[in-house]
């Protein structure tokens, strides 16, 4: 025998699966990481008591100002990120929701990811050294460069490493500092030929830069629009595509001559 449900009964029966589905969605882990502004480090100085750039085999200049590489801090790859976390971060200016695969290699264990990030950092340091020495036409000299940056992985500090090496060896090329005494921050990968690449997480990095005293931020040109989206007041964006364009912009900014590009 079949009986007909009243309207309230029917709504109750139909709503039960919807409620269950919503509850499941709220509780289910999502393929995202929650990120926020991370540490910055002056590559011309020390980080956690260790000199970031050490050069042997050539005279090293005394520098002024700072060249600060920037980072983001993201939830670990095994952290459970649910819908409430995503919603909270969506409305926060100090956090961002990013696809986990854009932050960490997909399908790897935490240990493997840490190894991968260390490998990327080492490769980035090697490329940054080659790019800087090639820019200075000193790649054939017996110059040794050691780069140390604890607890940071990935390739996004490449541009700042190269600029730091150039500033320590040659400055602006005429006795001055690349920084002009300013706190310069930035981000960007670099290859041995000096090409600067995009990195991601730029809006969070500009916040970290401003927090730590920067007034100028070097950004890969392709990420200008991202950098402008939530740019802190008082922070000047300078787009770059190559190591040479970054040096030229800093020299123009320091000397007050020539055009300094903007986003």
Précis, in short:
It contains 8 helices and 12 strands. It has 263 residues and is α/β, with parallel strands linked by helices.
Q: What is the CATH class name?
A: Alpha Beta
Radius of gyration: 24 Å
The overall number of domains is: 1
Terminal CA distance reads 73 Å
The counted number of beta strands is 12
Number of helices: 8
Mean pLDDT: 84
Class based on secondary structure composition and strand pairing: alpha/beta
Q: Which percent band covers the strand fraction? A: 15-25%
Quote the CATH topology: Ribosomal Protein S5, domain 2
The run of helices and strands is HEEEEEHEHHEHEEEHEHEH
Strand order of the largest sheet: 6-1-5-8-11-12
Give the overall form.
Answer: globular
Helix content: 25-40%
Low-confidence stretches: 1-5, 7-28
**CATH architectural arrangement:** 2-Layer Sandwich
Largest sheet: 6 strands, mixed
InterPro entries: Lon_proteolytic, Ribosomal_Su5_D2-typ_SF, Ribsml_uS5_D2-typ_fold_subgr
Keywords: Signal
Protein name: Lon proteolytic domain-containing protein
GO molecular function: ATP-dependent peptidase activity; serine-type endopeptidase activity
């Amino acid at each position: 025998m079949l009986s007909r449900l009243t309207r309230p009964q029917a709504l109750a029966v139909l709503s039960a699966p919807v409620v269950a589905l919503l509850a499941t969605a709220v509780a289910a882990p999502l393929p995202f990481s929650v990120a926020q502004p991370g540490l910055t480090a002056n590559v011309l100085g020390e980080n956690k008591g260790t000199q970031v750039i050490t050069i042997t085999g050539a005279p090293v200049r005394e520098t002024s100002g700072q060249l600060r590489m920037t980072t983001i801090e993201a939830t670990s790859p095994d952290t459970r990120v649910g819908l409430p976390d995503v919603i909270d971060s969506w409305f926060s200016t100090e956090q961002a929701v990013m696809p986990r695969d854009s932050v960490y290699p997909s399908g790897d264990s935490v240990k493997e990811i840490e190894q991968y990030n260390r490998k990327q950092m080492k490769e980035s340091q090697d490329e940054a050294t080659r790019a800087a020495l090639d820019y200075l036409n000193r790649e054939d000299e017996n110059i040794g460069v050691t780069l140390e940056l604890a607890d940071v992985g990935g390739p996004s500090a490449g541009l700042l490493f190269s600029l730091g090496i150039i500033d320590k060896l040659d400055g602006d090329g005429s006795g001055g500092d690349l920084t002009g005494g300013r706190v310069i921050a930035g981000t960007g990968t670099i290859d041995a030929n000096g090409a600067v690449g995009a990195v991601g997480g730029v809006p969070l990095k500009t916040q970290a830069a401003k927090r730590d005293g920067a007034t100028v931020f070097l950004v890969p040109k392709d990420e200008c629009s991202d950098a402008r989206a939530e740019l802190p007041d008082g922070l000047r964006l300078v787009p770059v595509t190559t190591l040479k364009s970054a040096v030229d912009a800093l020299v123009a900014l320091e000397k007050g001559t020539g055009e300094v590009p903007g986003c």
